[in-house]
Amino acid sequence: MAAKRAILIAGATASGKSAVGMRLARSFNGVIVNADSMQVYAQMRVLTARPEPADEWAVPHRLYGQVSARQNYSVARWLEDVREVLGEIERLGQRPIFVGGTGLYFNALTQGLSPMPETDSVVRAYWRGEARRRSPEELHAELMRLDPLTASRLRPSDPQRIVRALEVFQSTGQPLARWQGKAGTPLLPAGAWSGLVISPEREAIYRRAEARFDQMMAAGALDEVRQLRQMQLDPELPAMRALGVAPLMQHLDGEIALEAAIEMAKTQTRRYVKRQLTWLRRYMIAWRQVKTK
Prior knowledge:
The protein is of the alpha/beta class. It has 3 domains: 137 residues, P-loop containing nucleotide triphosphate hydrolases (Rossmann fold), CATH 3.40.50.300; 60 residues, Histone, subunit A, CATH 1.10.20.140; 72 residues, Crystal structure of tRNA isopentenylpyrophosphate transferase (bh2366) domain (Helix Hairpins). 52% of the residues lie in helices and 10% in strands. It has 13 helices and 6 strands. Helix 2 links the parallel strand 2 and strand 3. Helix 11 crosses helix 12 and helix 12 runs antiparallel to helix 13.
């Protein structure tokens, strides 16, 4: 890949990174590769703001909408798919342009993924059952008792990662943080890529994100959530954590009005954008910052 340096474009939701990716792909004979953990799902084109069909026709796009929402897709699976895609792009003499807002994907791509252990199925079932019965704060307190090293790195309001840490500790006797500290092998080592962070003003991103959610609703986001509801998916699946799914599902279940669901989704999106911006400042400080309006 040294002859065709990959371009990595990161940014928060609604920052305009996809438009930048399109311009660079046209300029450098590029192929846009998805680096967003939710845009992989086939059933959620509108709700995850996947590229429009016209854009996918104009410039090659890979790893968008190729996974069923029924699948427990992970960063490890994504890296396997990326490895295959990079080989194809290299053979065609094109330039890979990764676009997305999932920091963990970019970290895994450029730093490698730590080898993670298999967890015992009985242990896994136990803790996932506990997650349905106990609050995230209670689970975090339990993790702090068993594995204070990992617990200190996790927010008490993040039940998915807390449960994963509990599963790993009970299955292996080792803190999850210790497993994560083991070095992996990056697909794109230093020198094989250059990184850009698209950085509009914070309030501008908030306004765009809210306006875009209104556009999503007009374009059929509620119908996509209705389809997910009909699929009767396990609520623990990653696809069910997509922004807007939970409040719109509550509306379809008759629990809240549509207007309330939309406001909840916008609030959820605003909080997610804030977390993304924090991640970008903390972990991508060496990337080139591209200021936009």
